[in-house]
Amino acid sequence: MPERGAVTVSTVRSLTAACRLPRLETRMLLEQALRRPRAWLLAHDDEPLPEAAVQLFLEWVRRREAGEPMAYLLGEREFMGWMFEVTPDVLIPRPDTETLVATAQDIIRDRPAVRVLDLGTGSGAIAISLALMCPDAVVYASDASRAALAVARRNGERLNAAVQWHQGDWYAALADVEPGFDLIVSNPPYIASEDPHLAQGDLRFEPTTALTDGADGLQALRAIVQGAGAWLKPGGWLWLEHGWDQAQAVRALLLTYGFAEVGSRCDLAGIERISGGRR
Ligand SMILES: C[S@@+](CC[C@H](N)C(=O)[O-])C[C@H]1O[C@@H](n2cnc3c(N)ncnc32)[C@H](O)[C@@H]1O
Questions:
Q1: CA 237 to mean position of chain CA atoms
Q2: Structural domain spans, the chain
Q3: Tens of pLDDT along 85-111?
Q4: Using a 6 Å cutoff on CB, does residue 34 contact ligand 1?
Q5: How deeply is 81 buried, as exposed, middle or buried, from its count of CB atoms within 10 A (0-12, 13-18, 19+)?
Q6: What's the mean pLDDT when you consider all of the chain?
Q7: Using N-to-C axis directions, what is the helix angle for 219-231 and 247-256, rounded to 10°?
Q8: In the structure, what pLDDT confidence band is assigned to residue 237 with cuts at 50, 70 and 90?
Q9: Closest C-alpha to 151, from 214, 191, 206
Q10: CATH code for the structural domain at 76-278
Q11: What is the mean pLDDT of residues 131-155?
Q12: Is 190 annotated as a binding residue?
């Protein structure tokens, strides 16, 4: 790659040829740095590029080579067909979480004025998707992180989703909200603090408080299950995303706290990814 600050004429073709990243990633970073679509890159691949865009691209390539997730470099990630802003203050929404959204949609679809709560909303991906898919639902979302909530609010405004945002620790964030939810969903931090994966791959760059409960991985799930009874209507549902090996433990928690119709659903990889029950 040309050195930063070196006097060379860079083109799409020369930058692509010199870049060691996978071709798709190179193209995505070029598109974003140049603010041009793919068709433009193809049609103008021999044209000298603006120096500022070239330096930005080279900086992103260096950061990507150091392992930084593409979503943080690009500042966005697609979820359920919508593009969400992401920053290092929020978890990068995962395709796994679409299982939770699809299950929630099955429960609230075609029910007018249904009240839904998303606990630990991060980028707002779950709450906003539900608000857009079910416009008759009244959607609330909370997060302990003010910085995450700022990203969620911006996503809500940009995507024109009606969500009521609240900041604070799980249910304590809802001090001024009436109980009586038809559905509570959450993808809480569920990685045990000792899990070596926290020091690997994309997880190294994501907020620690979005990933781990700082304990056994079940602490946040336990707090949410324990508190849900007071916030759900009779017959209301609680559905939680959890780790690949936590379904049995979460079902046991739901049964302990008096939930009925307790069950789990698999993600696209066939792994029990969410568990839920009915108050
Ligand atoms: C795994 S991330 C999920 C983000 C988003 N819902 C998603 O699925 O992409 C967990 C979120 O829970 C939030 N969180 C962690 N501890 C919390 C607490 N005690 N109360 C409320 N939110 C909390 C984190 O800030 C983070 O945004």
A1: 22
A2: 12-66, 76-278
A3: 999 999 999 999 999 999 999 999 988
A4: no
A5: exposed
A6: 96
A7: 40
A8: very high
A9: 206
A10: 3.40.50.150
A11: 97
A12: yes
